[in-house]
Amino acid sequence: MSTVIKSSFLRTPLTLTDENGRTVGVSLRGERTTICGSFNRTGLLDAVQSELGVRLVPDDAIVIDKADLPPVSSGDGTRGATRSFLLWDSDTYDSLMADARALIALAEHRKVHPPVDEAQVKALARLIDVQDPDVIARAILRSGKVTVTL
Fold this sequence. Notes:
The protein has helices at 41-52, 93-112, 118-127, 133-142, and strands at 2-5, 14-18, 23-29, 34-40. By secondary structure, the chain is of the alpha+beta class.
């Protein structure tokens, strides 16, 4: 199998050929000159990833774009994305993939917003003299910019 890449500068296209699964043939064939060579497949793919800033994944990998993740709403004990671990006959591939995206969204949310230490909430609440100090203490601690020494 070969892939031809047209150049925006040269009239001669670049041809890539998988020679044997381990090497890739690269050639530039012009009217008078041909330049060709064989390269180690792993080395070539590593160079593509490194130089072009892309990540190559196996063709059987499941890749989920972060833009496809549902929003996560935070509040007292509620969340926007939900999860279940039981497989029902009514579950479809699409519904399970939606659950997978929701779980990844929760993981990404948790990474940015770790849980608040409830002992710190109580300690800070005792220092704040307002109607509902737990709510204020929880919000302050969630910011990650305050730690209370117990």
